[in-house]
Amino acid sequence: MRKIVLLALVGLGAQLVDGSTGMAYGVTSTTLLLAIGTNPAAASATVHLAEIGTCLVSGASHWRFGNVDWSVVAKVGLPGAVGAFAGATFLSSLSTETAAPLMSAILLLLGGYVLARFTFRGLSSEHLGKPLRKRFLAPVGLVGGFVDATGGGGWGPVSTPAILASGRLEPRKTVGSVDTSEVLVAIAASIGFIVGIGSEGVRYTWVLALLAGGIVAAPVAAWLVRHIPPRVLGSLAGGIIVLTNAQTLLKSDFVDASLTTRTAAYVVLGLVWVAAVAYSFSEYRKNRDEEQRIVRQAEPALA
Q1: CA 255, 260, 266 angle in degrees (round to 5)?
Q2: What are the DSSP calls for 276-290, one per residue?
Q3: Among the listed residues 122, 101, 74, 55, the one whose alpha carbon sits nearest the alpha carbon of residue 249
Q4: Residue 300, pLDDT score
Q5: What Gene Ontology cellular-component terms does the record carry (predicted)?
């Protein structure tokens, strides 16, 4: 029962971050399932089954708050579904001994990217409003879907930064559109895993626990996306992902690091994480204060 409650809380927290930043639900949830010894393919299958429900609720909530561009959903979501099915089939064919460190490595890289992206970079608005072309979105979706299925997460970390970096879609619509299109990715990945491994290793009580937590958080996240600093949430989520998967890799047969080496690595990574979150919050406050100063200076001219 304690594990079920923990999974529900993880689902809630992961969806809160995912619905606010457009990434990290799958990466965060899969990381926990791997940490408690779940088979990699089963872990990814469990998370993707739960994501079908959470993404439906999240997408509806984002649509309700005007955060969805449906043309983007179609152009990125359909190629994403193709990539997800291919990735699920590929992961299902690997042995657990090979898949576990491979998935942890992918998650570690994704976590590092999330951490760096939200810590050091802001959001460009230079090309805001320009149309996003299919020839750009289709490859993003294909790669994002494949990484998402093989890594247990990655749709958001691949798709959201790519679309944000284009500067053509405002952040809240980027997050809402990526979250909504993930329904297609989750369905395709789930079908791929069912074809590849059947229901073996998939615990449906865990699926329901993750789903319950995610459903509670989804409407809240869709509302919060306008009111909280995404870079701070992204830094927090990225750090958790990096630390957890670094632990898995350092203990794996491929690395087999000593206790002293592992401890030193955890301390260094922990300090980097704390510094990153502090820097993110500092930069957020600095940018917010600068925007407020510009608004105050402009008010007399408009009066």
Answers
A1: 75
A2: HHHHHHHHHHHHHHH
A3: 101
A4: 63
A5: plasma membrane
Place of tokens 């000593």: 258
The 10 Å CB-count burial string (b at 16+, else e) for 215-249 is: bbbbbebbbebeeebbbbbbbbbbbbbbbbbbbbb
Tokens for 168, please give them. 């053509």
Task: Tell me the residue type at 113.
Answer: Y
Residue spans of alpha helices (H) in the chain: 2-21, 25-35, 40-64, 70-92, 96-120, 134-151, 155-166, 171-197, 204-224, 230-251, 259-302
Six-digit token string for 251: 């203990």
pLDDT along the chain (303 residues), means of 10: 69 68 70 72 78 83 84 90 88 65 72 79 55 80 84 73 70 81 88 75 74 75 66 73 77 77 90 91 82 69 53
The confidence score (pLDDT) of residue 272 equals 93
Q: Which residue has the tokens 């984002």?
A: 62
CA distance 15 to 12: 5
CA atoms within 13 Å, Cβ hemisphere of 28: 32
Q: 241: closest CA among 174, 180, 175, 153? A: 153
Six token digits for residue 207: 């699926």
**What's the pLDDT score for residue 268?**
93
Tell me the C-alpha distance between 17 and 151, whole Å.
Answer: 18
CA dist., res. 222 & res. 66, Å (int): 10
Identify which of 84, 62, 270, 9 has the alpha carbon closest to the alpha carbon of residue 171: 62
